[in-house]
Amino acid sequence: MKRLYTIALLLAFSSPFWDLAHPLWEVDDARYAEVPREMVDGGDWVTPQLNYVDYIEKPPLIYWAGALSYSLFGVSEGSARLPLAIFALIGLLGVWWLGNWLYGGRTGTHAVLILASCVQFFALSHVITPDMAVSVALLWSTGLILRCLRKPADAYWAGPAAWIAMAAALLAKGLIGIVLPGVWTVALLILFPETRRGLKKLLFNWGTLVFFVVIGGWFAVMEKANPGFFNVFVIEQHFQRFLTPKYNRPGGWWYYLAVDSVGFLPWTPLAIMSVLVPLLRLRKADSRDLQLALWVVVIFGFFSVSSSKLITYLLPLFPHQAVLAAAFAGRLRRERTLDRRMRAAALALGSLFATAAVLTPFIVRIVAIPIPISTPLIVSAILLLASLAFGLIWFARASRLEDESNLLVPTALAGFLVCACLISGTRCLTDELSVKRLAMRLNERIMEVPADTETRLMAYDRYLHGIPFYTNRPVDVINWVGEMHYAQRFPRYAHRFGDDNTIRQLPTKGVRTFVTLRRRELPQFLDLNPPSEIRSLEPFGPWILAEF
To answer: How many domains is the chain partitioned into structurally?
Structure first.
């Protein structure tokens, strides 16, 4: 078991670095790889650009990290994802640190195994978004705040570090970097009076000054370079996104229940119980459990009432939930608190998922599934169901074990096997997930264009973020605005946006135009311009490359 334990830990800490160089996926992965590339290309590290137009929706931390990686290692998919992997690694170190100082024993190590092998954390350590960076910064800021409040003697270093972590969180995703830790801290002070002894040292230290100087300085520089930035960034991207349906990302009250249940597989039963049990047993619960569970409740509540919902938004609660799950697993073994009905229910569900795992290949063969299927993805589905079954059976037996590692480690190994199959399965779906092959073909076609002929790239109805990354060229957008709504306000970018009339006017004398579009839009596209005017049409998975 010691050897398996070591292997599981090595897999956990190395998992964010698996297959860093896979093709960029649409949409977020390619977008957040392209912005820092243009930052390096244009030399402007103040105002981010996307598709060579100003893009100020998000703070700059991940752009700066990506631009630094490109500067050191050159532009590639691997160097684009390297900062993401490092953020994920820092997050794993964070749960190890939090679990060990808060609970002692091997709680931190077990939390690392749980977090690294859950599906959503692994997935978001391989898809570039700001959510991993902000989640890790929030983990460290809340862990350091808790250290200040529970151990005021350590506030001389934990207090400043907490403010620096909150500054990083704000620079990663925005105002939630200070709002969420602030709400949670106020709730702690109200519900746990003993924590108030560390409040003064938390609030008044040199880290507070660093926070306001750094954040205030960044706002001032951005407002000077982009007049009206405060209104766009704070009012539009925070308050309107949270309070109104403007960004068309709805979701019911159950939305994040589903995200947490699926995203935390194969540890879902353990994770849910680790939060519910202390909340249902308030008077008897350990204060440490309640304080971490309170963070889960704050995150869950905040994003559930938001008018804009995305799967990735829930990631900040995963590290704390992993620590809670690890602590709860140890308590189940030590206190033998699992009653007979819970064991029976867990065994029944485990048997159900095990049966589903066995039947998956037959179900896939019988049922017409409208998405591309590859063998690694089928295998990963089988393994995911099997690992969930194993986790449920472990949950049923936990109170009878001498050491929770005996089944926790094999479940983690099964989770890592699922993650490996998922990442390899995506390689079989390159055309569906990425536009790399299309972009490489586009580069070849551009090389064939005569030197005296101008080249223009267009995206019809759907902008493909990977095209500028792989071609190093701007793409004009037709019938689409999306993330470029800020740039559309300025006359200097007016020529970059068009409508159906732009397509009707093709071809343009002295200009070779390449247009990307979805296959399903081809009939409508051909109605705008007769096929006789089109030099060629080439399919790439769900996409078409047209040349005029």
So the answer is: 2
